[in-house]
Amino acid sequence: MRSFTREDPSAVAGSVETVRRDELACCLHWRHAFEHERKDSRYYEIVEDTILQGFEYRYFAIKDMHGEVRAILPFFILDQDLLVGASPKLGNLFNTIRQIWPRFMRLRVLMVGCAAGEGHLDNAEAMPFGHQSQLLASAIVTEARSLRASLIVLKEFPAKYREVLQCFLQCGFARIPSLPMTKLNINYASFAEYMNKALNSATRTKLRRKFRAAAGGAPIELAVVNDIAPVIDEIYPLYLQVYERSKLHFEKLSKEYFRRLGLMMPDKVRFFVWRQNARIVAFTLCMIEDDAIYAEYIGLDYAVALDLHLYYYAVRDMITWSIENGYRWFRSSALNYDPKLHLRHLLDPIDLYVRHTSRLKNLLLKLILPLIEPTQYDKTLKKFPNYKDLWCD
């Protein structure tokens, strides 16, 4: 346990203390942390218990001037290759450098946020976002050094936090875009109305052709459940098929992750499961928050997925179910941007705040970051009408 206090009398009063999970057991605030988000404190506990991969999980307990915990911000430590999202054109140059300097741009990183999702500040009712961020910004470099982390990253914080996280920029951090999430307004009476009003004729024609191809085979049946445990051995290999086809990897989910979600968070989790001839051919993990449903992860049986156009089939069914159950926004995780562009999604920017603990190396890092951030190399992203929002306030 380590505590840090701001010494500047003009700064926000309070302190930041580093704690482990077992120390949160007696913390009343932790039970309600992030309760307004779909990924509340239960989710962070599931992630810590089921996503290992060498991650070291810790928590910042942010206290007021009286020593009362008012906010908790999870973080984790890992060894990270910063060149994962860099342009392939620079690959030969970086490989040459690594022949001489094997650890070039491979650093021990302290990441604030969630290992499986975007980051958030804790409930503003207990402590304003601005106070949380100012206290953390004042303490985090010292803590990173004590944990032997060379790099600090605020991982994938939504653009709505840009104003309150401005203090990190004043403390030497650089802000760059991460691969964005997307959002789609589904405030329609039906999927058919959405198609007719939101999509152009070419896209409508292509979708109908795909749906006819799926209808030409054996019937595909949908079940929506909040507990996947009975079929975990069937759905997990489908998740792995999608994971292994992806060019970019970060977290790798486990069977226990999916099982625990249904057990501990049935109020916020929905699993969509598609069967053909009694065999599961696709599933999605979705989470709900207010009037939005978030498509988090998908699993597909590629023995039939491409012929049946199961991705589009799944999107249609998820949107249909969401409209029927009163949701107005369909939100999706990063990647696979081309179909989302044609379905009229908008980008939902999320940001990385990055700083090296060495002031001198941080100056060099700021020059390199624009070359290695991944969004500029995705040609599809630039076609979205709000692409500029990835950088602009």
List the defining traits of the structure above.
single chain; 393 residues; alpha+beta; Aminopeptidase; 26% strand; globular
The strand count comes to: 15
Ends apart, CA distance between termini: 37 Å
**Strand neighbour order, sheet with most strands:** 1-2-3-4-5-6-15-7
Number of helices: 12
> How much helix, percentage-wise, in residues?
25-40%
> What gross morphology would you assign?
globular
- The level 1 CATH classification of the largest domain is Alpha Beta
CATH topology of the largest domain: Aminopeptidase
Uncertain segments of ≥5 residues (pLDDT<50)?
4-10
Estimate the strand proportion.
25-35%
Q: Let me know the largest β-sheet.
A: 8 strands, mixed
| Domains, number | 2
Mean pLDDT: 92
Derived from helix and strand composition plus strand pairing, the structural class reads alpha+beta
Order of helices and strands: EEHEEHEHEHEEHHEHHEEEHHEHEEH
Q: Which CATH architecture of the largest domain?
A: 3-Layer(aba) Sandwich
Q: What Rg is obtained from the alpha carbons, in whole angstroms?
A: 22 Å
Per CATH, the superfamily of the largest domain is Gcn5-related N-acetyltransferase (GNAT)
